[in-house]
Fold XdhC family protein.
Amino acid sequence: MPATDSSSIADVLKTAEDWRNSGRSVALATVIETWGSAPRPTGSHLVIDSEGNFEGSVSGGCVEGAVVAEAVDVIETGKATTLEFGVADETAWRVGLSCGGRIRVYVEPVT
């Protein structure tokens, strides 16, 4: 299943491996839960280096900037974190907000 229109999950993981092998510090973000209209399925990945470069997608562009910023902190501290983005409760979806939904992303350093 594609992580982005042009990158498969295998490509994203290969990029993480290549970056690590070249000495770059890397974090991996993984979609661990979705609800509603999240544009990427569970298991989608985004790899980020300490300079904020990234490959892949966890939301089709909706939250990548926030995930990248958090991933840079994860690389610095070495401590994984879980991020959650979306509507506050299910009422937004029930009233028909087409952009309703929620996504949880686990961000971990790659060692």
About this structure: Residues 9-110 form one domain. The chain has one domain: 9-110. The first helix runs from residue 9 to 21. The first strand starts at residue 26 and ends at 36.
